[in-house]
């Protein structure tokens, strides 16, 4: 027995040392990878081309950690990079004035993820490329399978070359959510809802098998507005009438390379080696073993300061004092509590806004919103702190891809609201969703019984459906929050409450439509919002910009990476894998329904625009 315990102790000790050693090696490995992964600061040769590889996801918020970079370092395979909107646009505008940069090469295809690479983001990127062209520098595009996002950006290029074996994939926009009502019914999951607003259809995937007429109406209007903006911009850039472009697309004559060339969508067909040879000639490289003079966008960004205000962000009239403009990125679903790195945690963001409004160095706040909304309680906590901040300094809102429902709730009191024409906003409405598993549990032999001291003592139970009285109470709560939402929008936007009720009803609008109905003040991007905030705060042109959430320190990155990284295939997902990932993402939204009152101000449908 003594030998047994000695052996057991030795085995346990060995396991502990193995785990500790493995953990330490992981830490050391991640530290080395992190250091190796830091972009170098190359010497940019005069006459070089800035290479903008579109194979990336462009998010508004700074990247706290780039999981893809770490996975790529382990696997040796390239994965889509993570870029930040503000740094991309700053780099392109800086390159326009940089005597070393001869031109820009666009290649690859965007890899949207989460709320990144929205059409609103791409409008900002496209404007920065237009600034580059205005300096008389060429923009060249080499594409293989450009989709709507890729072609929207690349359409302004002076020369668009398409791989002869490629394809132009710009069929238009579509939204095709998954509906779960049938599955819930089949497996015995009950759903009861409360809502206000005939267009507030966020619960439809869990209660219906298709779009309601009202939801179909609003989505048709929204997609037509978005597509009109994208189509008309591309048509103008390619010197084609919008109606003619639409006819080409609907007839299927814009997809095949030869047809796209004939229609004028592209300028020529070319292979990779031909493009590389041309670029070597343009950059005066004679050595056949050397590449053309180039610097990647990521490398170029690495040379730039990340806190000084860029020229396009500076006010036109200098003020009297120096200070800081704080940019807060509300990107992701709004949830109660701290949230995850991809959520907008109500408690976390409220605490940060409180810290900023109490910081004497902060003279203005810009709220950058890229959110479909979520928890009504969390939205109110964030809005409350922004209203308190507005008593001391300018608070300006910049809307990205989404600023809907709770995303509009936190925006309503901004001194000025900027949006892109393709921003999805509005959705002023609320809903509640209550699940129960009585039938599911019964099918496995589970039952419940109750002893209680009051009529509503077990009202929060998921073991049974809610009674009529409980649902009436839940609807009263929903009605009350909706009335509060209407009042806040009317007060924040200085609009008549009757007008707000008319344009509310949970309906979504594009930024272009929102200007007409008073929900947005001005079309423009983040740089415009920063410049406006700085001018309102009487800041001089050489002011600082601070950002939240901030990039993490190395120790924080490593600690969080060990928790968040999971074995992930770096191979391109198959059709079945993509479907499984989509299903997982859709069902994962249920985690975000964590409002203490069970009431939500969220986009009426999870818009996946294809």
UniProtKB/TrEMBL annotation:
<keyword id="KW-0472">Membrane</keyword>
<keyword id="KW-0812">Transmembrane</keyword>
<keyword id="KW-1133">Transmembrane helix</keyword>
<dbReference type="Pfam" id="PF01343">
    <property type="entry name" value="Peptidase_S49"/>
</dbReference>
<keyword id="KW-0378">Hydrolase</keyword>
<feature type="domain" description="Peptidase S49">
    <location>
        <begin position="390"/>
        <end position="539"/>
    </location>
</feature>
<comment type="similarity">
    <text>Belongs to the peptidase S49 family.</text>
</comment>
<dbReference type="InterPro" id="IPR047217">
    <property type="entry name" value="S49_SppA_67K_type_N"/>
</dbReference>
<dbReference type="InterPro" id="IPR047272">
    <property type="entry name" value="S49_SppA_C"/>
</dbReference>
<feature type="transmembrane region" description="Helical">
    <location>
        <begin position="12"/>
        <end position="33"/>
    </location>
</feature>
<keyword id="KW-0720">Serine protease</keyword>
<dbReference type="InterPro" id="IPR029045">
    <property type="entry name" value="ClpP/crotonase-like_dom_sf"/>
</dbReference>
<feature type="domain" description="Peptidase S49">
    <location>
        <begin position="132"/>
        <end position="285"/>
    </location>
</feature>
<dbReference type="InterPro" id="IPR004634">
    <property type="entry name" value="Pept_S49_pIV"/>
</dbReference>
<dbReference type="InterPro" id="IPR002142">
    <property type="entry name" value="Peptidase_S49"/>
</dbReference>
<keyword id="KW-0645">Protease</keyword>
<protein>
    <submittedName>
        <fullName>Signal peptide peptidase SppA</fullName>
    </submittedName>
</protein>
<dbReference type="InterPro" id="IPR004635">
    <property type="entry name" value="Pept_S49_SppA"/>
</dbReference>
